[in-house]
Amino acid sequence: MPDFLQSRTLAVAGAALPVFNGKPVLVPARLSGTETLGELFCYTLELKTIDMLAFSPSITANVDLDKLIGTEVTVLVQIEGIGIFVPGMPGNTGTGNIGAGTREITGLVTSARFVREEGRAMVYELTLRPWLWLATKNQDCRLFQDMDVMEITDAVLSAYMFPVEKWLVGNYPRRDIQRQNWESDFGFVCRLWQEWGIYFWFEHGNGHHRLILCDSIGAHRPHGEAYRAIQYKAPGAKRIDQEHIHELSVENHLTTGRATSVDYDYTTPRADLTSRDEDPRDTSHAGQEHYGWGDYAQPQAGVSGLSGEHNDAQREADYLVRVRMDALRCAGLRVKGTGNMRGLVTGQTFTLEHHPQHAANREYLVVSSALTIEEVAQASGVGQHYRCTTEFEIQPTSEMFRPAQTLTKPRTSGPEYAIVTGPADQEIWTDAYGRVKVRFLWDRSAARDHTSSCWVRVSSPWQGNQFGATHLPRIGQEVLVEHIHGDPDLPVVTGRVVNAFNQPAWALPDNQALSGFRSRGLKCGQSNHFVQDDTSGEIQTQLSSDYGTSQLSLGFVRRILGNKGRQDARGKGFDLRTDLWGVVRAAMGLLITTEARNGAQSHAKDMGETVQRLTQARDIHVSLTRLAQKHDAQQADADQSEVTNAIKAQNDAIRGGTPTSDDPHPEMSTPHVVVASPAGIETTTAGSTHIASDENLALTTGGHVGIAARKSLYASVAEAFSLFVHKLGIKLVAASGKVRIEAQGDNVEIVAKKVLELMSTTDWINVTAKHGIRLNGGGTELEISPKGILGFTDGQFLVHADDHATDAPQSKPADFPSFPSGKVNQAFPFSL
């Protein structure tokens, strides 16, 4: 450091200050400025050119001020100390006074100007500010993740190569995200400091100044010997040979006595995160409340996500509310004064003595000090005169000091653009809350991966407990991000927008009539869509999946192909189709009908015509069954009666019971499949058709039943086979091949009310029986058996013959077919 003029009250040094022949060109004439806890100091230093250069105005009037800007300049203020000069000490150094020495004030030159010409001297003025003032000259927007206030401070101030000391006792929790929202570096960190009750000042020494960060009243150090105790002497009192306070005003203020804060954490939505603190001063009307929204809920949105440890929100809330309470309360008792103390320093403590108000004589913290020192002459010898005035504001050290929370978090003014991010090998990156990572377009430092931001919630037009609408933004999509309450630390994705790489689901403007949703398969390129086509006269709703080209189209059916959109028309109505398998399953019943309900009138299961036809069919079944039973084709109350009873039960179940308020549409009380049509029902297949029923199969028609088989007709019946024809008889015709009727276990009965004809038009009629044959007509019987031929008649036995003869006995054996013996195994249905 250059030599100072020690005989002067003020001296100045700086590497960039001009010199001439090894002597400084400028000497200090006046110094004024203010230092306050939590604020940037500012000093104005007035300099004059020295007399020895008065002969050269070209030098004194043309100091290169640009060379001074941004450099450090130190002003030394001579401190006399307490007491009188000690005889025998060399010169006029005053070193015999207690606490004598020098006070340094160092700052960066932020402005310099030529002020005036004063006699033979030129006057210049320098403005000195702390290095932290540099942090007010920028503006930035960036994110800090999983960092506490001090880690953020280190990161921000690392750009400024100046010393910082931390006199801190608090342990500060990390935050998921803290955003510097278009703020200067100073505005950002100072806002955080105020929130957490941290404040600052500067200490000067060795030609430099350093930033001090503090959060406790106990961290402040007392002044040196000269100012450890300062006396109050009213104007007009007996003069004392030491610096003292001559004006002092003790000020009491009405302050807010309660602080309350509330916050919300969506990972614990029912938690009450309200915190309250009260510490009113002993005055009237001190119970007013400051109620504000907090900033302590941390919804596990940081790097560790939901797997990380949840913060202790209540403890942090209580601390932050206490900080605000302290900041409100500490302004309630302040002392302001004036004196001639050149060495009174902001951030240090002293004890006041000799004040007439006894309660005022206590230890104080210097909250603010304004110093003005003005020398009378340029150079001085012994007994140099000067004027020094110090105005100050102090606070009792018994009260916690906290900075006023003057800096509020800048609010966002509207939506912001961002790009969804994630790992390089993923298309979607999300967590259990459907949150995503984004990179804001303004973020210059963020990586384009899953570290770009904290987890950000995604709003949905519909969200409930395990229900709602889910459309997760995918990596690379451009989204709109808004902020809750405008808080830049509470982002939420509210929408997605089109850009060159994220085009509309269907090409526009050709498909402007289409609206809906179209998704994209992960790593496969296929898609699903739900689309509504509002083309005039051709409206359609379509649900489709590229997998198997499976889709349901309703209305004017038109093919909608990928991004191309509307293609060829395919029909009207509805089309349910797939290239794979199709299943229709209804646990309570299924109605398939072409009975018209124009305009969707009536209720869905309305099937009056169907039930009516089924009832008519049952009536036909019952009447013909009774005829068959009347004609002994079936047993009464059995056989086909079992089928008619089943039909009735089935019809009753299809019709349903009486409508009630709980069940206004009672059709299908059991899960039947009903297929109905007023025109016709047709089935066809290139393969086989199989109709299976565990119970009965009833076929009823009001007209004919036709069965046509290009090959054969087979019927296998486990029990009885009964055919009854009421009017026009039965025909059994084989155009070729034989007709064979067998009763393999019992008799065959052929009964006719009238003539029974057996006829062979080209060959014999063979009647064969193993035991014999009886022919009985009108009481006359002819018996043919192994015993012979016997005839029985009450009438005439007349034989017409051309010849008549008998011969020796001779039998004619006959061949009889063999029948299977034993029980035949049958397959019976079973139910699972």
Automatic annotation (TrEMBL):
Transmembrane segments: none
One Gene Ontology cellular component annotation held by this UniProt entry: extracellular region
Keywords for the protein's UniProt record, in alphabetical order: Secreted
InterPro entries, A to Z: Gp5/Vgr_OB (IPR006531), T6SS_Rhs_Vgr_dom (IPR028244), T6SS_RhsGE_Vgr_subset (IPR017847), T6SS_Vgr_RhsGE (IPR006533), T6SS_VgrG/RHS (IPR050708), Vgr_OB-fold_dom_sf (IPR037026), VgrG2_DUF2345 (IPR018769)
Residues in Gp5/Type VI secretion system Vgr protein OB-fold domain copies: 431-495
Keyword Nucleotide-binding: no
Residue ranges, annotated region (Disordered): 268-294
Residue ranges of every copy of the DUF2345 domain listed in the record: 661-810
Subcellular location: Secreted
Biased composition (Basic and acidic residues): 273-288
Keyword Secreted recorded: yes
Domain Putative type VI secretion system Rhs element associated Vgr: 523-628
Major place of residence: secreted
Pfam families to which the protein is assigned, alphabetical: DUF2345, Phage_base_V, Phage_GPD, T6SS_Vgr
Stated family: Belongs to the VgrG protein family.
Protein name (database record): Type VI secretion protein ImpA
Species this chain originates from: Burkholderia diffusa
